[in-house]
Every structure is written in C-alpha cells, then in structure tokens.
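Prompt: May I have another protein with tokenized structure?
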Amino acid sequence: MSTHDDQEELKPTATPGYKPSAAKTAEEYAKLDAEDESLARWKASLGITPGAEGADTSGPKVTVLTLELDSPTLPAGKKIIFNLSDTAKLADTKKNPIVIKEGVEYNVRITFKVNHSIISGVRYMQLVKRAGVKVDKMEQMLGSYGPHPKGEAYAKNFDPEESPSGMLARSGSYNVKSRVIDDDGEVYAEWEWSFKLAKEW
C-alpha cells in the first residue's frame, strides 16, 4: 500500500507556467475546426472523426497492457514481461522477485490502449525502494494520444538505463511502485512489483 510520501513522489513534475487545458472528448476534438480540410484529414489519421468515438465512454480512458524489461544481454528466448491484467503474477513478485542482471544496460517498454477521449501529458512514474528507503525514481513522458484508428495498442520505449552492480546492490530485493498519470493528476494505472539483482539473468 502506498504511503503519503509515495503518493507525493509519484506525482508528475509540474512545468512552471503550464496550465493543462480543459479535457475534451474525441468527439469534441473532431468537431473543432471542422471546416479546415487538412486538419480534418490529420485528425482522421488519428481516428478522431465525428461519430467515431461511439456512445460508450463509461470504461477507462486508458488500459495499460504490459510492462517489459528488455536488454541486449538477455539470453535468447528469455523475456521479462508483466501482463498487467494478471494481478496474481504481479503480487507473486513480492515473494519471488524477478531477477535482473547487475551492471547491464536495459530499457523499459510499456504498451497501452487509448479507449476513448484524448489523453495528454501522460507520464510513466516509477519509485524504487529497498528496505523502505528510496533508491531511484523514474519519470518518463509517454505523450499525448487519441484512440488508435484501428483499435491497436501503442508502445513506448524508454531511454536505456544501467542496473546497479556490486555486492551491496545484490543484497535484498527492491520494491517498485509504477504509475501512469497525466498532467491533470488523473491516474490511469498503478501497480507494484519487486526485483532483485544477481550476477546472471
């Protein structure tokens, strides 16, 4: 369970002077500047057309599908992918943390679907703690999206990072709180998982 301090750490960084505009649905965006043909074509390429949104806006705006850790050093055929609909497997990482090789370059990839509306200023936040002490925080911009014209998922690869190394880094496991949030503070997904560092994958 997240503490108050964790909640503060998982808030997106505010850009001085920036004020998010009022949220609009895809239908409202489709009707804006409807007389501008080139803009209408561009919006249509994003799946933003009058009537395309449909009547059902009751579900979540965003569904986060997977979180993947990728590295050129991973053995052939080995994949580290969290299916976020499998909450039991995520919870199991607290007892059986995933293993990440120490001192290697890796990157995080996230896949998600935009179900309706337009989302803007969406970020992936990650807070890493060991024995209750913060050791790392990541904030990566996902961007702004409309529903995919073909209903497909979007994928975002983050910049490569290097895993810590050394005996101290290998002692104990790391607890991670992940969140997908927008500039307005709307949380689209939040989950927890654990990992440990080792000499090999």
